[in-house]
Write a structure and sequence with these properties.
This protein is α+β, with helices and mostly antiparallel strands. The chain has one domain: Orthogonal Bundle (Helix Hairpins). Helices cover 55% and strands 13% of the residues.
Length: 92
């Protein structure tokens, strides 16, 4: 899908269709690798960082959506019951 070397990244961001969690993570990993290499000019590094932060936020939102859909089966006095997933807030 995404071939490196194109300067049209900003145009892609503006008209970015919804991407999957996996696609966002893969792009985020690529950005991190580029930033860790230290071989990018400062302006490019800032742009990559901003894109990475946006992708990180998107991934967080997608994970929250999934958490809301997950149900846990809890055994109670009446047998197995469905209970909405709670992210460790009750256990703390």
């Amino acid at each position: 899908m995404a071939k490196s070397g194109s300067a049209d990244n900003s145009a892609k961001e503006t008209a970015a269709p919804a991407i999957t969690f996996e696609q966002a993570m893969e792009t985020l990993e690529t950005i991190v690798a580029k930033l860790e290499s230290g071989d990018v000019p400062l302006e490019t590094a800032i742009e990559l960082f901003q894109e990475g932060m946006s992708l990180s936020k998107l991934c967080g939102q997608k994970l929250e959506q999934v958490e809301r859909r997950i149900e846990m089966l809890v055994e109670g006095d009446a047998g197995l019951q469905r209970k909405p997933f709670a992210a460790s807030k009750e256990e703390a």
